[in-house]
Write the structure tokens for this entry.
Amino acid sequence: MSAFLQSEQARAVFVAAVSVVRRNSMSGAKIESMISVPEEILWDYEEAPPDLLWRLQRIADLFPLCGGDRQTVELLYRHRNELKLDDATRELIEEYSLAWQARESISRSLE
């Protein structure tokens, strides 16, 4: 892994870059078409392929450094059986999913 990927600043960039842009969700586009992959983890590609599972796999390989936002966690969780995940990453994705669901439930109850 390069020195860039190991730096704290890079981690912050990854987390921000992987976040799905919420304003695009208002356009009616499907969430699957909006998932983005940071340039920093596309070392072998100029652009991320349009394949959702490829994008999710690349993000899952660095999870939770990348992909901790609600929409990405939802997609990782939904497609977890189609991705090559080690047990620890699979459990972490499940925990993140439960945490986002709990947070959403609390937000709804406060409205």
